[in-house]
């Protein structure tokens, strides 16, 4: 009888007990997988946003670099930069050197926003155009006119020199001149005196254009850029000193 009792106490799990254990393990595995899947999705979304922000930072750094290297060209672009309400054009020092180490010359650079009707909701993209390095006034004049044409109605030849940057809903440009922010088109890119709040002096559109003391860039970004909403970036002329009291 002792032998039989010992045999009964050593019996294994029943089929029902095994099924319950397997079911519990399956439930726990499923819950663990859902947790891991959520972590992976969160990581992917975060990485995508980081990548988008990095791209935007790179684009804005290029914008700043173009303005920092701005080089006015007498009789062609005395202010170094011009804005026609749609396209911003500027002449700047080339950042690359020739093989022999000599100065590469100047670039003509243009920025514009282009509609993408296929995206809907009046969405667009920010686009940058850059000419080859230029050494002669004739080539600068040709590239300057080409940049204007590119901003209005680009040909396939013009588009070969452009780079599509980031999605962009809208952008605005303001100049700081005469101790006040103003629309660049309001003064024709010409030198102006200080204007008072009650009307002040009229712009002197016949004066020689001068480089703005500062340029304010306002962007409205869609969600796919990782920075949805409006951002403002101010560029200040390196040798500008505000003497306003």
Key structural traits:
33% helix, 245 residues, 5-stranded antiparallel beta sheet, 4-stranded antiparallel beta sheet, alpha+beta, elongated
Strand count, sense and barrel status of the largest sheet are:
5 strands, antiparallel
Rg over C-alpha atoms, rounded to the nearest angstrom: 31 Å
Number of strands: 9
Question: Structurally, how many domains make up the residues?
Answer: 1
The strand line-up of the biggest sheet is 1-2-3-4-5
Number of helices: 4
Can you give a write-up of this model?
- The protein is 33% helix and 25% strand.
- It has helices spanning 2-9, 15-68, 137-152, 156-159, and strands at 81-83, 87-93, 106-115, 124-130, 162-168, 170-177, 180-182, 214-221, 229-236.
- The protein has one domain (46-236).
- By secondary structure, it is α+β, with helices and mostly antiparallel strands.
- The radius of gyration is 31 Å and the shape is elongated.
- Mean pLDDT is 80; it is low at 188-206.
What's the quick description here?
The protein is an alpha+beta fold.
Indicate the topology.
Blueprint: H1 2-9, H2 15-68, E1 81-83, E2 87-93, E3 106-115, E4 124-130, H3 137-152, H4 156-159, E5 162-168, E6 170-177, E7 180-182, E8 214-221, E9 229-236
Antiparallel strand pairs: 1-2, 2-3, 3-4, 4-5, 6-7, 6-8, 8-9
